[in-house]
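User: Last request for today: this protein with EPZ, please.
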Amino acid sequence: MVITGGRTLRGRVRAAGAKNAALPAIFASLLTSEPVVLLRVPRLRDVQTALELVQALGKEVYWQGEELELREGAPPPPVAPEAPVRRMRASFLVLGPLLARRGQARVPHPGGCAIGPRPVDLHLKGLAALGADIQARQGWVEARATGLVGRTVYLDFPSVGATEQLLLAGALARGETVILNPAREPEVVGLGRLLSAMGAEVTWGEDRVVIRGRKELAGTRWQVIPDRIEAGTYLLAGAITGGRVRVEGVVPRHLAALLVKFEQAGLEVQQGEDWVEVAACGRARGVHLETGPYPGFPTDLQPPMVSLLAVAEGESSVTERVFASRFGHVGELLRMGARMRLQGATLLINGVEELTPARVRAPDIRAGAALVLAALAARGTSKLEGTDHLARGYQGLPQKLQALGAEVELCRMDSC
Ligand code: EPZ
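Assistant: Here's the final one, the structure of the complex with EPZ:
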């Protein structure tokens, strides 16, 4: 991607459906033999991977614009194909549905990734508590259960994936599954709503989520929630270029932690029922923040926020509390003239007045977004490699940025 920075971004952009809500919803379709129709599904590489996976597990896939219908061609086999699971960690969520429907499942271990080791122990402990016998063999997880039974499971960390795995499995388990210390990200709550619409009963308490399973689940129509991470990224793009961007079709309260930090940074924030607008009058001021499980500051917005703070006035600190090593963007930002250094899990930032354009490489989705933002702010032409990561998580990114006034071009390597 070739980005000529220094343009002020202004205008409106519409948020897509959330990737991280669409993926578990696609896997939830494996829980029923009836059709599941999902609305506002983003056209992303990760969604394609999820569809490749459920197709191999017997689903037929029909697209109509952003509407996706998943119909069962054949009941799912108990073994998941290797390639899509290794490619995308969220694929591991098929374990619960396959186990619940078939009484056995064999799924590749999803492995680590660029942002840390990312184990699945909490998923497996939870499924074992529901009665599954689980073995890990040569890179595969094998699970068996003659009927899952609802139990109380405590999560040591409010893991998004483990909560989703247990909601999915619990939806077809006998009796009530109680998850203590669950993740409460809007995408997880969204999955709970989908499962309720399919017939399971999901209720949230102060410290728990309870799911009452059903013997069989029904098909439904369900709308994917807006992508708060994509929305936040466009607001940051406006802010870093000293502009004014409105993102429409969002749930403003899902962005609360980011908006508070914007206000502390001296940016002007306005919001309506389903939109948020952020304007920068000059440079932002440095702020201190820690990422955390929702409603904490989202780890997925940490990298692009770091780009803003790289050019903010004064000092900032950013502590990463969710992933062990999610600072892949830092080395590249240093090459663009940023002044920052890591001290354990905390990034200490001394804001500079300007970043300089450079040739940089995106190591993962959100670090890629951080580098796009940095390039938008750096006067001159930057070249970003590794844009396939961006295609995993941001629908129509170059077009949306162009509509806001950015000079961005996606080109083949040999023509850049
Ligand atoms: C989800 O990942 C998201 N992915 C991530 O978004 C997001 O960053 C993350 O939640 C946190 O919000 C999807 O929804 C598809 P976790 P997930 O389980 O489920 C540890 C993006 O860029 N942990 O809450 O993998 C884990 O190592 C992606 O869109 C265990 O120790 O997140 C991590 O440190 C990246 N054992 C922490 O918990 C487990 O069994 C949070 O992970 C599970 C997790």
